[in-house]
Amino acid sequence: MSAQAQMRALLDQLMGTARDGDETRQRVKFTDDRVCKSHLLDCCPHDILAGTRMDLGECTKIHDLALRADYEIASKERDLFFELDAMDHLESFISECDRRTDLAKKRLAETQEEISAEVSAKAEKVHELNEEIGKLLAKAEQLGAEGNVDESQKILMEVEKVRAKKKEAEEEYRNSMPASSFQQQKLRVCEVCSAYLGLHDNDRRLADHFGGKLHLGFIQIREKLDQLRKTVAEKQEKRNLDRLRRREEREREEWLSRRSGSRTRDRRRSRSRDRRRRRSRSTSRERRKSSRSRSQDRHRRHRSRSRSHSRGHRWASRDQSAKYK
């Protein structure tokens, strides 16, 4: 890649698709299904294993550093939950690698000579010490490249101790095997990257393997997968809690609404009863008033008739008295 292309890629990674106002680059959004979500999260195996013995070639989905920058900017404002897609991708890839590892183990078991369980355990011990030496040498080389010479020297001293243990383990293994069988290269499958490791591999070969891009790439993928599983589990738990809280709030609002409606209906009923009572009292008063009025009228009429009768009686008495006189 030329210096100009590197500078363009760096700007894309920092500023996204809109860094220079080019609208044609924004036609594909990072949310598009055609975009690799693992690439956006910087964990696509096609990127990590590029240039190794297990180079997977180009990914079938879109890889663009500018889209990754767009995603990183957008993910600060809202949760896009792309981790689930990336987790499914890596799980599928690792599952296929583990399947190849199991097949390689079966193939070795079929082709290599059968040995007793005791001899097999001694060979396994040599393999384990080989792996420890390889990892320590790779770490020492990394520290030395970073300028941390003192730490690198300490690790090299540990390597010497492990080498002494390996020598003793090899002697035990040699003494338990016939000379003709011992010279045969006993292989083992690496549990991380499924590469073959030899029982008699030298330190340089072991350091190259455990410090190589292939082995470290698989470690990165497996560690990223573990991290994604943890993140997805936490986010799913958070979503479930948020969903439960929203449901409880909705149920509470519905309960308050029903309670408010019930109170409103109670108030309406109460007002209706009050109006009926008032109408009833008013009607009763009117009836009583009407009754009193009728009673008074009757009383007045009775008194009037009584007075009229009394006057008539008096006049009649007077007339009769005058007649006798």
TrEMBL record:
Residues 255-325 are annotated as: Disordered. Keywords: Coiled coil, mRNA processing, mRNA splicing. The keyword Coiled coil applies. GO terms for cellular component: U1 snRNP. Residues 260-315 have a biased composition (Basic residues). Residues 316-325 have a biased composition (Basic and acidic residues). Pfam families: LUC7. GO terms for biological process: mRNA splice site recognition. GO terms for molecular function: mRNA binding. Residues 94-172 form a coiled coil. Belongs to the Luc7 family. This is LUC7 like. It comes from Rhinolophus ferrumequinum (Greater horseshoe bat). The lineage of its organism: Eukaryota, Metazoa, Chordata, Craniata, Vertebrata. The gene is LUC7L.
